[in-house]
Amino acid sequence: MPAAPLLTKSEHLPVRQWSRLLTLLRAWAGWIVAGAAVTIAAVYLGTPYVLGPVIATEQVKRQDIIQTVVASGQVQTPFRIVVAAQVTGTVADVPVAEGQAVKAGALLVSLDDREAREAVRLAEGVADQSRARLKQLSRVTAQTASENKKQAEAALRNAQAAYDRAIKLQRQGFATGATLDDARKSLDVAQSQVHAADLQMTTALPGGMDYVMAETQLAQAEASLHSAETKLSYYQLRAPRDGTLISRNVERGNIVQPGANLMVLAPAGETQIVVQIDEVNLGLLQLGQKVTVSADAYPKQLFEARLSYINPSIDPQRGSVEVKLTAPNPPDYLRQDMTVSVEIEVAHRAQAIVVDAGSVHELSGAKPWVMVVEAGRARRRSITVGTIGDAAVEVLAGLEPGDAVVRGQAAGLADGQRVRTGSNG
After folding, report:
1. CB 239 within 8 Å of CB 82
2. Confidence of residue 308 (pLDDT cuts 50, 70, 90)
3. Of 11-20, 33-42, 367-376, which gets the smallest average pLDDT?
4. In this model, does residue 261 exceed pLDDT 50?
5. Domain 70-76+267-348 classified CATH 3.90.79.10?
6. How would residue 305 be classed by pLDDT, with cut points 50, 70 and 90?
């Protein structure tokens, strides 16, 4: 059977009608595409208004929470000793170096002491003379005076006997008045000699005038000697106690003046850390609180300390309060004036109801609040906060474990707005 012939456009439709049909088909296709796009956009954009936006939430739970105060400070001893000269002199030797540990009594600085030694020798000579004088009085002068007194007393007895005989002879008519006068004079002289010998012995014995004067001179000489020896010791500067030299400002040949700072000694013993804490945290601090410390030079090596001192005054310039920490077992690498970072544990709550700190609105204000999800809607809820940790906040009232809290600040989310939950924490 022969095939049917193909029809041409000219055989079925006029060319003009065919062109109109193609134009109409193109218009219908554009409207169909536009309608589909509108429908898709309406579904995509309208869903949040109907079902609400997708938000992330976290579940309220119980966990331990620690609140800390973080600051930086410096390592210091409770006090420091400034080594200074008490006399003017030339430095003869400095046998120690900065950073060296020394024992009590160790020589730190030696000054030229030749003049001081000569003064000591001179004072020793004067003291020796005074001791010899006192010894002479007690051993020689006193004994001589005693012998002289004995001789004077014997002469007095003879003179008294001669005088008595002269009186007797005169009464018998055998002696003249001149003989009696001579006997009287001899008696008076003998009495004077006894008195003089008695005075000499009295002054030479302990308690006597000469003895007291000799004792006074010896005391003065010994005081001068002690003063000279003390001044001589000023030329040898020694460590008053065990410690570490953290500063040295003197070299051999320097001429030093009294009071000049030559060295600084950090005594061995208790190690303290001095920290400046912002005064807003003052109410959180208590003596005995546990502190974790790390030196900036060794950030991974932690050691413990305790809060041992809180300054009763506030620094008005910096708005801070000075606190001191005691480290009972400081590490070997710790050095004076080393900068450290401290974390003071000011509160610790076990199994507290907590929420992420970033989800709490107006946390530092008087009325903090969060957004929770209830039955598919966002609800604003006021809370009472307790301990504030680094990343979490203790909730004392307003939330219970299991509540879904909107993460973050949820900008633009209104109270009562319908929402859909995404990933939960």
Report:
1. no
2. very high
3. 33-42
4. yes
5. no
6. very high
pLDDT band with cut points at 50, 70 and 90 for residue 44: very low
3-state DSSP percent of the chain in helix, strand and coil, to 5: 40, 35, 30
Record: fold of 81-109+238-265: OB fold (Dihydrolipoamide Acetyltransferase, E2P) (2.40.50)
CA 405 distance to own-chain centroid? 46
How many whole angstroms separate alpha carbon 113 and alpha carbon 116?
A: 5
Residue that wins the pLDDT comparison between 77 and 39: 77
What Rg, from alpha-carbon coordinates, does the chain have? 55
Contact yes or no for 375/34 (Cβ under 8 A) = no
Residue at token pair 């004995």: 150
* Sheet with 243-248, edge to edge strand ranges: 81-84, 261-267, 243-248, 101-102
Partners of residue 173 on adjacent β-strands: none
The distance in angstroms from the start CA to the end CA of the chain is: 79
Separation CA 326–CA 308 (nearest Å):
6
161: amino acid identity, one letter = A
- Angle, in degrees to the nearest 10, between helices 114-136 and 209-233: 160
Sign of the alpha-carbon dihedral angle for 148, 149, 152, 158: negative
Domain ranges of the chain: 54-64+349-424, 70-76+267-348, 81-109+238-265, 114-233
Q: Is pTM, for the whole model, over 0.85?
A: no
Instruction: Please report, as a single letter, which amino acid is at residue 293.
Output: V
Amino acid letter, 46: G
* 315-332 residue pLDDT tens: 889 899 999 999 888 888
The tokens for 25 are: 């088909």
Q: Report the Cα 33 to chain-centroid distance in Å.
A: 81
Please check the confidence at residue 143 and state whether its pLDDT lies above 90: no
Q: Which pair of tokens denotes residue 208?
A: 């006597």
Instruction: Could you list the beta-strand ranges (E) of 128-226.
Output: none
Spatial CB neighbours of 302, under 8 Å, sequence gap ≥ 6: 292, 293, 294
- The burial of 272, by beta-carbon neighbours within 10 Å (0-12 exposed, 13-18 middle, 19 or more buried), is given as buried
User: How far apart are the C-alpha atoms of 3 and 413, rounded to whole Å?
Assistant: 74
Query: Which residues 6+ apart lie within 8 Å of 283 measured at CB?
Result: none
For residues 156 and 69, the model is more confident at: 69
Place of tokens 């010896």: 218
